[in-house]
Amino acid sequence: MNQVRKADPNNKTVAENRKARFSYEVLDTVEAGLVLTGTEVKSLRQGQANIQDSYASVEGGEIWLINSYLPEYLQANRFNHEPRRRRKLLLNKREMAKLSQSIEREGMTLVPLKIYFNDQGRAKLLLAVGRGKKLHDKRETEKQRDWSREKGRLLKERG
């Protein structure tokens, strides 16, 4: 699928789901556009969003982002948006077909990893196809992280 450029200074991360990489084994990532209203974009530009408990699902041949939180834009008064509304994701038909097949056949889930603005200033969502980790896998990940942290400390002290 599409590869996202690494460490691009123009990409401004708005919200990140750090818990997702701990709870899910990420197999593939896809960059998707978001259908947003004007006040939602303004709220994102202020850096206010939460995708911690959100997920994506395939319904009626379309992919939707569910349970994401974009707070109301305070200066909008009565023209504000609903903070937890379902948001449609923009993908190619081929990408949608591939994602829906992997979900149905292999029992994977669609997990949002981060929301950011790309070079053109458009809000994008990094969506991952992942498999849920078991408890022993989570423990192994934690052990590896602790060991790499400890190894870094030892190398810093000695050298």
Automatic annotation (TrEMBL):
Q: Where is this region: Disordered?
A: 137-159
Any single Pfam family the record assigns to this protein: SmpB
Q: Where in the cell is it found?
A: Cytoplasm
Summary of the function given for this chain in its UniProt record: Required for rescue of stalled ribosomes mediated by trans-translation. Binds to transfer-messenger RNA (tmRNA), required for stable association of tmRNA with ribosomes. tmRNA and SmpB together mimic tRNA shape, replacing the anticodon stem-loop with SmpB. tmRNA is encoded by the ssrA gene; the 2 termini fold to resemble tRNA(Ala) and it encodes a 'tag peptide', a short internal open reading frame. During trans-translation Ala-aminoacylated tmRNA acts like a tRNA, entering the A-site of stalled ribosomes, displacing the stalled mRNA.
Report what the protein is called.
SsrA-binding protein
Q: What species is this protein from?
A: Mesorhizobium caraganae
Q: Which family does it belong to?
A: Belongs to the SmpB family.
Q: Which UniProt keywords apply?
A: Cytoplasm, RNA-binding
Q: Which Gene3D superfamilies match?
A: 2.40.280.10
The UniProt entry lists the main location of this chain as cytoplasm
**InterPro entries to which the protein is assigned, alphabetical:** SmpB (IPR023620), SsrA-bd_prot (IPR000037), SsrA-bd_prot_CS (IPR020081)
Quote the PROSITE patterns the UniProt record gives.
SSRP
| Matching CDD domains | SmpB
Classify the source by domain of life. Bacteria
